[in-house]
């Protein structure tokens, strides 16, 4: 199935249409040579476009409907996955998936958002908008991982937590706050990967870890650009300006010390070659998991606390309460 072209990929779309038209013609050596020339041209144009993406264009790439999600990574990198369901309080939230699996013969816990592919699955997954029971399910599973000394690997990809009335009634803010507090104290290695759209508290609710990684064209922000534009300018069409102001790209966040490392992607984004994208995630994840697992529990927890406590200082010293 052909990939959906994003709005800034029009030059690529034109070339792909030419290739498609040629493939319908009788096969000849001249036709094959022309197709090969056009394919090389597609690769060249794509590489040029992706070398200079604007923040808003990166938002579009992060939201691409074919971008690899947690289920893709489970299929390519993990074995023996056994899903855990339900928060033991209210329901099983399908927007967050969690379960135990083996990573290179090592037992781990996987946690992550799932947006869904087709319309039916997107509705089932609530488009990746997790409700309170999703965060409580995730924390329940994480406590099991701590009990059995299993590292936790988190894949973040959500626009935000679900803002509906029923979500508020069941305490979504409290659920996220409890996760922030308890993940900070879980005595087991935690590696977080922002693999797509890291939106607001919906992302942060499962994103406390010893290492926070981010795929090259993912985004991570306190609010989606459209919401920011609606609040600041009262005009959602200002989303392009908002995307630039939010500093939500991987290079911006690495520079600010919010993330620890950028995971590269294939030219054109992870959706163009999911297998290659998974291989790049695998290489970095193996190294990071080894690094944090080598630390003793007390040191790891102290470093995790300091990591998040130091965010936002911007060179200004202050004393913690009680010091």
Description:
The structure is a single chain. By secondary structure, the chain is α/β, with parallel strands linked by helices. It folds into 2 domains: 7-52; 59-309, 2-enoyl-CoA Hydratase, Chain A, domain 1. The chain contains 14 helices and 8 strands. Strands 1, 2, 3, 4, 5, 6, 7 and 8 form an 8-stranded mixed beta sheet that branches. The longest helix is centred in the N-terminal third of the chain and has 23 residues, at 29-51. 37% of the residues are buried. The model has no long low-confidence stretch (mean pLDDT 90).
* Secondary structure tally: strands: 8
* SSE series: HHHHEEEHHEHHEHEEHHHEHH
Level-2 CATH architecture of the largest domain: Alpha-Beta Complex
Q: Going by CATH, what is the homologous superfamily of the largest domain?
A: 2-enoyl-CoA Hydratase, Chain A, domain 1
Characterize the largest beta sheet: strand count, sense, and whether it forms a barrel.
8 strands, mixed
Output the CATH topology of the largest domain. 2-enoyl-CoA Hydratase, Chain A, domain 1
By DSSP (H or I, 4+ residues per run), the number of helices equals 14
Low-confidence stretches: none
Percent of residues in helices? 40-55%
CATH class of the largest domain, named Alpha Beta
Measure the end-to-end span.
60 Å
Average pLDDT for all residues? 90
Number of domains: 2
Radius of gyration: 21 Å
General shape? globular
Hey, roughly how much beta strand do the residues contain? Answer: 15-25%
* Structural class based on helices, strands and sheet pairing: alpha/beta
């Amino acid at each position: 199935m052909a990939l959906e072209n994003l709005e800034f990929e029009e030059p690529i779309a034109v070339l792909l249409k030419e290739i498609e038209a040629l493939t319908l013609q009788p096969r000849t050596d001249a036709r094959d040579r022309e197709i090969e020339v056009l394919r090389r041209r597609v690769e060249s144009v794509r590489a040029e476009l992706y070398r200079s993406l604007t923040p808003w264009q990166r938002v579009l790439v992060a939201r691409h409907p074919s971008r690899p999600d947690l289920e893709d990574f489970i299929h390519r990198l993990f074995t023996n996955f056994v899903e855990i369901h339900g928060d033991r309080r209210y329901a099983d939230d399908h927007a967050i998936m969690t379960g135990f699996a083996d990573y290179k013969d090592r037992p781990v816990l996987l946690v992550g958002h799932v947006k869904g592919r087709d319309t039916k699955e997107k509705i089932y997954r609530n488009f990746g908008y997790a409700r309170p029971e999703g965060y409580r399910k995730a924390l329940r599973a994480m406590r099991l991982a701590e009990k059995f000394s299993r590292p936790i690997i988190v894949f973040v990809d959500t626009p935000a937590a679900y803002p509906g009335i029923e979500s508020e009634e069941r305490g979504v803010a409290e659920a996220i706050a409890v996760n922030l507090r308890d993940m900070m104290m879980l005595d087991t290695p935690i590696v977080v990967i922002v693999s797509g759209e890291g939106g607001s508290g919906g992302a942060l609710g499962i994103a406390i870890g010893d290492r926070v990684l981010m795929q090259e064209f993912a985004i991570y922000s306190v609010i989606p650009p459209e919401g920011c534009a609606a609040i600041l300018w009262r005009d959602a069409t200002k989303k392009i300006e908002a995307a630039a102001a939010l500093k939500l790209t991987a290079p911006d966040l690495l520079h600010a010390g919010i993330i620890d490392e950028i995971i590269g992607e294939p030219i054109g984004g992870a959706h163009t070659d999911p297998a290659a994208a998974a291989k790049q995630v695998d290489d970095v994840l193996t190294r990071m998991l080894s690094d944090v697992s080598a630390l003793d529990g007390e040191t790891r927890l102290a470093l995790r606390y300091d990591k998040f406590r130091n965010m936002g200082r911007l060179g200004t010293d202050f004393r913690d309460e009680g010091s």
